[in-house]
Amino acid sequence: MKVAVLGFGTVGRGVYEMLQNCSTLSCDCVLERPGVFNEPFIVNDINTILEDRSIEAVAECIGGTTIAHDFAVKCLSAGKHFVTSNKALISAYGLELRNLAAKNGVSLLFSAACGGTMPVLHNMALARRSDTLFKSGGILNGTCNFMLTKMQDEGSSFEDALAEARRLGYAEADPSADLSGLDTLRKVILLSAVGFDAFPSGDLLCEGIQNTDAAAISELKARGLVLRLIGSCGRNQDGSLYAFVQPVAFSSSAAEANVKMNTNMAFWEGENCGRVTISGQGAGRYPTAANVLRDLTELPECRKSMLSSKCREEKVNNGGCEFRYIVIENGSVSITEKMPVSAMFAKAEIKRKEGAGFFFAAMEE
Questions:
Q1: Within this chain, do residues 267 and 200 fall inside the same structural domain, yes or no?
Q2: Which of 14, 59, 65, 146 has most Cβ atoms within 10 angstroms of its Cβ?
Q3: Known catalytic residue: 347?
């Protein structure tokens, strides 16, 4: 099968290189902006790919939503399989693209959009065929986990940890999506869509690590606790959907507390399989490209979509999950009784509008 790659950045270059050593796939066409690269396999017009009938599949590695969405629509409409590592694209337009792929009889796969090298979406899509899944989530952002590890294990300040993450290529020039939890939230949306046939909508609560400082880390360490940023989704007891991102304080013996640096750890739970956990590199050229290649190699086997025909948009109910929280407000520390996630987020919003310094973390029981 002949494949075209969209984008020749970190992931796109990795996909192209790996395709050169793949016995069942070939690639001699990569789309990039004019004037950026002059390699003979670079093209600058998407129509070159759309009009080439020998190209059966496209691997999108551009990122963002505007151009990537336009190209996705064009490729699927032209009857080409579409594989992407773009979590922003799928979390925003997944159902639309699923329907367009089905209309044109082609595949839409996105294993690399969550977890880098970890095949979490791939395996959840397989697991849901024979089991009922009801919970998923985990440590889904390598940048935040790297920074928290540096702050907790080495005493780095937030600013120094971020600078080191940038130096090592873990953090983007604009790290706001990572630090705010948005990157993790997009992955939570994909976990829910693949695992529970539910695209979360409505009040998607998201607290990242931007309000975490050395004082908060010091307080947690004194109590034998380790902070991690956790994405969560699943079914409440009444069957309603929850989906949110928040800092969680774990005991030092917990598995999550021992996931260090830029490593990710994701899990899902099912009625029959119980809890399944996968750990691995959450980002990077070859880890992410490996998941793209995994999807591409499945195309000859006619795997059509990671989103089932039953998948629908569904409003979340984040009042159905309760935690105790450790709260630091203007230097004063307290631990709450169990309260709904939605109630804690509402409290934090009010306090911050009043000008208070306000940090919170759920306490894992």
A1: yes
A2: 59
A3: no
